[in-house]
């Protein structure tokens, strides 16, 4: 059967019947117009709608073409039928057309076909004007509808004058309606056909386990669906059909292991005679389908055809990367299926098939040259290139085409058999540069084979490098090295092997490194390169992964070459001969594990001797005699100006500190790649990423919001540079260079044993500076084993520093005043040697004192006037000693006024309880140290005056503001005036004051007859720090010691002025006369009584008769003052008081505090002001003696300032003071001093009842 390759053979078929000539006149227009616009296709089973273009094939109607019921085809039978007629006469319709349509309809009904359309064409009639103008009773269209389309009116349509050269609007509308109707009916018809066909396919799939079921027939059946979707340009749906067939066939192959062998599978198990690879030519693909239709198809042919169809669809969808990705699993699955089915294939035929298929896919992908496609499919084509190279090498080994072999007769016969089984498709064998021709050419001769093998290897390696898979590229290079070794090209082989070793070392694959180095050694030995061969022998001799016998052989090779180089070197002083020395990295045979210094801190003085101990671990299999070992020590001088820029040596260079930075090794005892980088690239500048930040904001609705924060690398191109492309980095591990050093240390004739070896180098220097270890060299004959860099930098520091004295409090915290404290004198001798004859002279200033200490071990403190002398013991140079000295500063009288010299310095510091003190120390090495010690006062003292009527009490409070405990004794208060003091503290006023506690002392001031109202007082107290003889921690982490246990004394001075009681004020709340108690919301009377508190023998005269202003300060939430809250009274000359009555209203019920009253001294303009109290100027009428200013209707001013000050936390402005309108004079308000006014009713409460005890409750009863 001929294969149909064009889409036209698979278009839906539509038949036409009736007037053939009429349809022929419009056929071209219908054929072109129908697929012009898309139509929406709504599919079943919830699948989404799609737009398709209807493109069909028109054929004449014959009854034989009609599909039978359940016929398994989509394209061979018509799916829609159209009847064309242009009959306009009803009589002609009855005689001819009706019978013809009836016969056509009968043929369709016999085959159960319901998809048809009748088209009535109205043509232009030139003789229309001669006919009767009477309208006919019924038209032809009505008769057709009544006869055939009574229930399906959409099955008939009128087409008006389709062939009119000048179309009218009616003809255009009828044509558009016809095309739209035809598209809809065609799509509905084809959807029903397709749905019915899908049901057939689904039913056939369910019968796959029945006898007689054939996969090839089912394959062709389901492929019809794929062709349909491909015709409508639904490549994804078409690909799904082929994927289902692929999965179904693979499952049948897998089931063969369980003993399920269907009969149709026997044709695929037949011996394979054709191993043509994959071919994507359309003619070849259609040829394979013809084999499927006949049932004569092999397993490889079926797989080739199925994958070819998938590739065509993927290439149509522009997915070459998916083709390459699927090709890998396709090739491997086919190979496994052939093995599972045990298909008989000649030797090498499978390799031919894989090679041809790989090249076909690769050549097809290379047609897509777009950069994005190349970048995508390169990740998958790389593996295909390797697969093809592997199979070509397999064919070369089978056919004797490798460089180290020669083809025999059997191999030539094998080549002929392989060539006969491929290229059986004529189209595949004639295309230029096709995979078939390449394989034929490669198998033709050894030279051609090598050419194609190298070409494939380079392409595979380049692709892996392009996708940055360097390890895979190096593996291909290793295969090329083996190929070149067989060919005898040792230089090329060595290059590829060295690249492979580098990538193995970087990733830590030690065994591949060892095996590859053995190949490198073979290449270098063949090339006669002694220096490189020597290095490789050293590496292999110290490689624990090799057998001991092999290591000994490489060691002997190393010693042999070293001896030969020593003989060639000649005299050591000959510069030309010295250039012939071979430099080999030390890590190849040994590694430096630790460095110890003596002294441990690595600090020496001038001409002072020290030692450097190196511990080296040898990997050689036996003891080796080394001629000379040299440790290169470089001198780095330090200038005074540049010392701040120098990096200091670590404080401890002992073995324990260096082990943390020692070289890391793997399980074979070989140093890792990171250590090699540190020793070879230690002096090179590290490329540090320069990170930059970019914070962006956006403004919306006037608000600035964070949009994004970006961190980017400014030098990303340098930091992310591919290491393989950097020639300097790759060669750095092999470039060794000896550096010049100022102080080389030598050891001669040393035996290095396997394992750990300790080397001791004596060191001595006469110049200051840093002496760092740079390189280590071992000379063995004509070979020098070099450690190019010792990391981290380690060495000796030679210096002659100046002696230094530092003064620090114990634990470096604030000291306490008034208590002996301990400070440390730290002496660093430097180059100076302190003897027992040297002393330190200490001078103290102000209240600071140094306390004596007994001499012990050559150290003692002897106090002197305004200072002390410290005797020192012997202190060697560069040593540090620490001594303790007890100091104490006296407490400051907290109440005394400072002198003129101390006023500016101590005013702020006393507020913070800080007392700074200075001490000057003269050192024997001509240095003067001025130290400032900060002391904190342990106590805070405050005084307070209390009043009880005319009696006065003074309270002294002592706060412990440190964390120590004290014993307080002997409190005493004295006065320089005639004031009598009476203590209420008891006879034995001894107490313990803990941290954060307060101790109070109280004295009564006895009444005296002195005329002055002022006195000065001084309070003294004895305190003792608890824990005598022990150390007690304070709050700052310090410790104090009261060595002698002597009590200390603190003092506080203060004065009292205007402290006697002048007036006593009492206030009461009286309920209204009609009620027994005060009630909320009811006016009550506030009775004020102001009485003088002066003694009877001090009568009040007219001259000292004062005027007082009272002010009611009521809480606004509790009381409402009705009327004026302020008034002025004139005190009488007699001892009688003044009564004032005000109206107030309680706002709340309960026990309310009585409103407070504030009394202020009212000074008229004619009186003189005295004292220091603040004054407020007002304008008032001077009241008469004993009178009370009534509430008026006007006010001349408002008071502010002291008159409106607070009392006991309440604040109320003084306002609305009444004044007369006739004559005014300025007046002032002077507040009384503390204690001059005694308020008897302070904190008194009054009971206030609610407004009413009767509550009316409304109750609704239903």
TrEMBL record:
Ranges of residues in domain TRAPPC10 Ig-like: 805-938
Annotated ranges, domain TRAPPC10/Trs130 C-terminal: 1065-1249
Compositional bias per record (Low complexity), positions renumbered to this chain: 643-660
Entry keyword annotation includes Transcription regulation: no
Protein location: Golgi apparatus
Major localization listed first in the record, in broad terms: Golgi
Annotated spans, Disordered: 637-660, 1184-1206
Alphabetical GO biological process terms: early endosome to Golgi transport; intra-Golgi vesicle-mediated transport
Residue ranges constituting the TRAPPC10/Trs130 N-terminal domain according to the UniProt record: 9-324
This protein's record includes keyword Transport: yes
InterPro entries xref list: Ig_TRAPPC10, TRAPPC10/Trs130, TRAPPC10/Trs130_C, TRAPPC10/Trs130_N
Pfam families documented for this protein: Ig_TRAPPC10, TRAPPC10, TRAPPC10_1st
Top-level taxon: Eukaryota
Keyword terms, alphabetized: Golgi apparatus, Transport
One GO cellular component term noted in the UniProt record for this chain: TRAPPII protein complex
Protein name per Swiss-Prot or TrEMBL: Trafficking protein particle complex subunit 10
Top-level taxonomy: Eukaryota, Metazoa, Echinodermata, Eleutherozoa, Asterozoa
């Amino acid at each position: 059967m001929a294969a149909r390759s064009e889409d036209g053979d698979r278009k839906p078929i539509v038949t036409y019947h009736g007037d053939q000539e009429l349809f022929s006149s419009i056929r071209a227009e219908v054929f072109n117009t129908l697929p012009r616009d898309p139509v929406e296709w709504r599919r079943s089973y919830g699948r989404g709608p799609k737009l398709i273009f209807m493109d069909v094939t028109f054929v004449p109607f014959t009854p034989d073409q009609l599909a039978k019921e359940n016929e398994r085809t989509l394209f061979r039978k018509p799916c829609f039928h159209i009847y064309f007629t242009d009959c306009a006469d009803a009589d002609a319709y009855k005689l001819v057309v009706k019978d013809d349509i009836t016969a056509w309809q009968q043929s369709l009904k016999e085959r159960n076909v319901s998809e048809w359309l009748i088209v009535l064409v109205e043509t232009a009639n030139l003789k229309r004007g001669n006919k009767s103008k009477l309208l006919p009773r019924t038209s032809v269209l009505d008769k057709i509808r009544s006869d055939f389309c009574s229930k399906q009116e959409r099955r008939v349509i009128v087409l008006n004058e389709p062939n009119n050269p000048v179309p009218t609007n009616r003809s255009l509308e009828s044509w558009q309606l016809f095309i739209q109707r035809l598209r809809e009916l065609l799509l509905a018809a084809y959807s029903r056909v397709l749905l019915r066909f899908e049901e057939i396919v689904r039913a056939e799939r369910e019968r796959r386990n029945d006898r007689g079921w054939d996969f090839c027939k089912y394959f062709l059946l389901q492929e019809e669906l794929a062709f349909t979707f491909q015709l409508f340009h639904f490549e994804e749906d078409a690909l799904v059909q082929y994927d289902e067939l692929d999965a179904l066939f693979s499952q049948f192959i897998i089931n063969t292991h369980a003993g399920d062998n269907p009969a149709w599978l026997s044709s695929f198990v037949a011996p394979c005679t054709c191993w043509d690879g994959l071919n994507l030519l359309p003619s070849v693909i259609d040829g394979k389908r013809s084999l499927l239709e006949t049932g004569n198809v092999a397993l490889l042919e079926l797989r080739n055809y199925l994958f070819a169809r998938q590739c065509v669809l993927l290439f149509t969808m522009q997915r070459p990367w998916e083709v390459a990705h699927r090709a890998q699993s396709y090739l491997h699955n086919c190979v496994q299926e052939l093995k599972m089915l045990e298909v008989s294939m000649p030797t090498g035929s499978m390799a031919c098939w894989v090679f041809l298929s790989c090249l076909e896919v690769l050549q097809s992908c290379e047609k897509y040259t777009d950069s994005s496609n190349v970048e995508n499919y390169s990740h998958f084509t790389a593996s295909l290139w390797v697969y093809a190279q592997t199979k070509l090498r397999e064919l070369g080994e089978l056919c004797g085409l490798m460089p180290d072999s020669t083809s025999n007769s059997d191999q030539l016969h094998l080549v002929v058999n392989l060539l006969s089984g491929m290229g059986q498709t004529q189209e595949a064998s004639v295309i230029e540069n096709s995979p078939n021709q390449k394989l034929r050419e490669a198998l033709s001769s050894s030279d051609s084979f090598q050419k194609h093998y190298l070409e494939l290897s380079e392409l595979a390696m380049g692709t892996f490098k392009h996708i940055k898979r360097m390890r895979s590229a190096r593996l291909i290079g290793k295969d090329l090295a083996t190929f070149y070794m067989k060919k005898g090209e040792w230089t090329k082989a060595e290059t590829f092997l060295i690249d492979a070793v580098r990538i193995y070392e970087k990733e830590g694959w030690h065994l591949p490194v060892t095996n590859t180095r053995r190949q490198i050694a073979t290449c270098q030995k063949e090339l006669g390169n002694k220096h490189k061969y020597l290095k490789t022998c050293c590496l292999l001799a110290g490689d624990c992964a090799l057998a001991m016998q092999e290591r000994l052989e490489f060691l002997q090779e190393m010693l042999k070459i070293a001896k030969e180089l020593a003989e060639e070197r000649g005299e050591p002083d000959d510069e030309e001969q010295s250039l012939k020395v071979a430099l080999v990295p030390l890590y190849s045979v040994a590694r430096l594990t630790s460095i110890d210094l003596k002294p441990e801190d690595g600090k020496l003085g001038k001409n002072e001797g020290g030692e450097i101990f190196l511990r080296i671990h040898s990997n050689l299999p036996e003891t080796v005699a080394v001629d000379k070992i040299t440790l290169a020590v470089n001198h780095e001088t330090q200038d005074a100006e540049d010392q701040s820029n120098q990096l200091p040596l670590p404080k401890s260079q002992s073995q324990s500190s260096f082990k943390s930075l020692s070289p890391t090794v793997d399980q074979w005892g070989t140093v890792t790649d990171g250590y090699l980088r540190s020793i070879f690239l230690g002096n090179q500048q590290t490329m540090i990423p320069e990170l930059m930040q970019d914070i962006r904001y956006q403004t919306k609705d006037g608000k600035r919001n964070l949009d994004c924060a970006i961190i980017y690398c400014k030098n990303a191109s340098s930091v992310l540079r591919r290491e393989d492309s950097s020639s300097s980095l790759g060669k750095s591990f092999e470039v060794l260079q000896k550096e010049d050093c100022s102080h080389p240390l030598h050891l001669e004739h040393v035996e290095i044993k396997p394992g750990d070896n300790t080397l001791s180098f004596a060191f001595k220097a006469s110049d200051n500076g840093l002496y760092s270890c740079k390189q280590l060299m071992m000379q063995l004959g004509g070979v020098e084993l070099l450690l190019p860099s010792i990391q981290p930098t380690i060495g000796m520091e030679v210096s002659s520093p100046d002696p230094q004295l530092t003064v620090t409090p114990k634990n470096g915290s604030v000291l306490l005043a008034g208590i002996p404290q301990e400070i440390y004198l730290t002496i660093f001798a430097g180059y100076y040697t302190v003897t027992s004859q040297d002393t330190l002279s200490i001078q103290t200033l102000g209240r600071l004192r140094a306390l004596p200490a007994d001499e012990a071990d050559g150290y003692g403190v002897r106090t002197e006037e305004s200072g002390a002398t410290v005797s020192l013991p012997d202190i060697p140079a560069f040593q540090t000693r620490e001594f303790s000295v007890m100091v104490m500063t006296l407490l400051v009288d907290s109440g005394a006024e400072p002198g003129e010299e101390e006023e500016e310095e101590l005013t702020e510091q006393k507020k913070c309880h800080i007392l700074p003190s200075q001490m000057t120390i003269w050192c024997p090495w001509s240095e003067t140290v001025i130290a400032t010690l900060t002391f904190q006062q342990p106590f805070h003292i405050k005084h307070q005056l209390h009043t009880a009527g005319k009696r006065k009490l003074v309270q002294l409070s002592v706060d412990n503001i440190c964390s120590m405990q004290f014993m307080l004794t002997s409190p005493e208060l004295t006065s320089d005036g005639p004031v009598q003091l009476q203590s209420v503290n008891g006879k034995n006023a001894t107490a313990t004051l803990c941290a954060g506690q307060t101790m109070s002392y109280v004295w009564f001031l006895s009444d005296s007859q002195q005329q002055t109202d002022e006195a000065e007082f001084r309070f003294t107290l004895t305190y003792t720090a608890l824990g005598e003889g022990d150390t007690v921690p304070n709050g700052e982490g310090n410790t104090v010691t009261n060595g002698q246990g002597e009590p200390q004394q603190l003092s506080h001075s203060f004065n009292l002025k205007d402290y006697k009681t002048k007036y006593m004020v009492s206030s009461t709340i009286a309920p209204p006369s009609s009620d027994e108690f005060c009630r909320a919301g009811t006016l009550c009377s506030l009775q004020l009584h102001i009485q003088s508190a002066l003694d009877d023998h001090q009568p009040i005269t007219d001259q000292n008769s004062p005027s007082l202003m009272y002010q009611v300060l009521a809480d606004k939430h509790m009381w409402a003052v009705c009327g004026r809250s302020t008034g002025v009274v004139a005190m009488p000359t007699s001892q009688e008081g003044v009564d004032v009555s005000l109206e107030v209203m309680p706002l709340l019920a309960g026990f309310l505090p009585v409103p407070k009253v504030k009394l202020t001294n009212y000074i008229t303009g004619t009186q003189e002001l005295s004292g220091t109290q603040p004054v407020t100027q007002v304008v008032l009428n001077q009241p008469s003696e004993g009178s009370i200013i009534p509430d008026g209707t006007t006010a001349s001013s408002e008071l502010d300032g002291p008159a409106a000050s607070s009392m006991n936390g309440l604040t109320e402005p003084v306002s609305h003071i009444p004044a007369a309108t006739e004559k005014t004079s300025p007046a002032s308000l002077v507040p009384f001093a503390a204690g001059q006014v005694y308020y008897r009713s302070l904190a008194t409460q009054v009971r206030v009842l609610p407004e009413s005890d009767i509550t009316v409750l409304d109750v609704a009863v239903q």
